[in-house]
Write a structure and sequence with these properties.
The chain has about 350 residues and is an alpha/beta fold. Helix content is about 35%, strand content about 15%. It has two domains: about 270 residues, Histone deacetylase domain (Arginase, Chain A, 3-Layer(aba) Sandwich); about 55 residues, no CATH class. The chain has an eight-stranded parallel β-sheet, with helices on both faces. The protein is globular. It starts with a strand and ends in a 6-residue tail after the last helix.
């Protein structure tokens, strides 16, 4: 079986150009070539590649604060109008001030007048720059995810959203971690709207999907479970992704985090995949979203995990055994020489024998 693959050329329009990391301008890692490498590999494997179709903002605006969406839609134009590309010479939107809870100390969170202050109102790091094509690419990625959901709702057992930029670090009202809109969360909500009373999101990216967790943390209908490098060992997102985060209120017990030590190899990683799959079964989910990051791979420069290509395929096989209609949404993976094969092999696993 091959997957339905959904892609959109507009996802290539986001060109971050750089990241500002510990105050230093470094090369951007979430580059358009990631998507072209994946698509070329999947076409060579015989997967059907469909264009995305346009969807309205209904689901998007139930997942994200409309103010965040409007900010992303307009902030680059406001930045240019304010003259920042000329003085001081910064053509990408970069925050310099974040209004943290500790800073405000109980004062209301206001909408700042200055665009350079507004940048930090919605972005929680300095790595996630906004350029002239960022909004169009991020919004196209949402259409890609929703089109993949449409394919599964219409009967495809597996659809893959070649979404770029990725999304699992985006909360209701803030973006970061090279993510702008939460494609996996939008897909999960769309599956709920299509009649699946319980949906599971399994996040196998090397980094914890703090945004997806936050969006569903109070809900019992969407399980969020993740394996990722331990944030307590000094890895992004640093402040979330710990094992004692298990949900709140109605969502108590509907979050599962399995932090992994740097250097983790296939055996322990696949044991964690099995635990996530067991949680999906216990949850009673009838549809699955896989946040498909492949930055756990040994060659990837963005994580300290050491997972083989065969390990990625095996992870897909173990999730396929759940027998659930599945939407896989692209998240991380930054080694251009291996990203296509890693995604291709994970999808080969997901497309394998299915129970149910």
């Amino acid at each position: 079986m091959t997957a339905v693959v959904v892609a959109d050329a507009r996802c290539l329009l986001h060109v971050p150009s750089a990241e500002i990391w510990v105050g230093v301008r470094t090369p951007g890692t979430e580059v358009p070539e990631r998507a072209t490498a994946i698509e070329a590999e999947l076409r060579s494997r015989g997967h059907e590649v469909r264009p995305s179709t346009a969807h309205d903002d209904d689901v998007l605006l139930r997942i994200h604060d409309p103010a965040l969406v409007e900010h992303l839609r307009t902030v680059h134009a406001r930045w240019v109008a304010a003259g920042f590309p000329q003085e001081p010479g910064q053509d990408r939107v970069v925050p310099y001030l974040m209004p943290t809870e500790a800073m405000l100390d109980g004062l209301p969170l206001r909408e700042p007048t200055a665009v350079h202050a507004a940048a930090g109102r919605y972005c929680y790091d300095t790595m996630t720059l906004v350029g002239p094509g960022t909004w169009e690419a991020a919004r196209a990625a949402v259409d890609v995810a929703l089109t993949a959901v449409d394919a599964v709702v219409a009967g495809a057992p597996l659809a893959y959203a070649l979404a770029r930029p990725p999304g699992h670090h985006v909360t209701r009202s803030a973006y970061g971690g090279s993510c702008y809109l939460n494609n996996a969360a939008v897909a999960a909500q769309s599956l709920r709207d299509a009649g699946h009373e319980r949906v599971a999101v399994v996040d196998i990216d090397a980094h914890h999907g703090n945004g997806t967790q936050a969006l569903f943390y109070d809900r019992a209908d969407v399980l969020y479970c993740s394996l990722h490098v331990d944030p307590g060992a000094g890895w992004f997102p640093h402040y979330a992704g710990f094992a004692d985060e298990t949900g709140r209120g109605d969502g108590a017990g509907a979050t599962l985090n399995l932090p992994l030590a740097p250097g983790t190899t296939d055996a322990a990683w696949l044991d964690a995949v099995d635990r996530l799959a067991a949680a999906v079964e216990s949850h009673g989910a009838t549809a699955l979203v896989v946040s498909l990051g492949v930055d756990s791979a040994a060659a990837d420069p963005e994580s300290p995990l050491d997972i083989s290509v065969a390990g990625h395929r095996a992870a897909g096989e173990r999730l396929a055994a759940l027998g659930l209609p599945t939407v896989a949404v692209q998240e991380g993976g930054y080694d251009l020489g291996t990203i296509g094969v890693l995604v291709g092999e994970t999808l080969a696993g997901l497309a394998g024998p299915r129970q149910g």
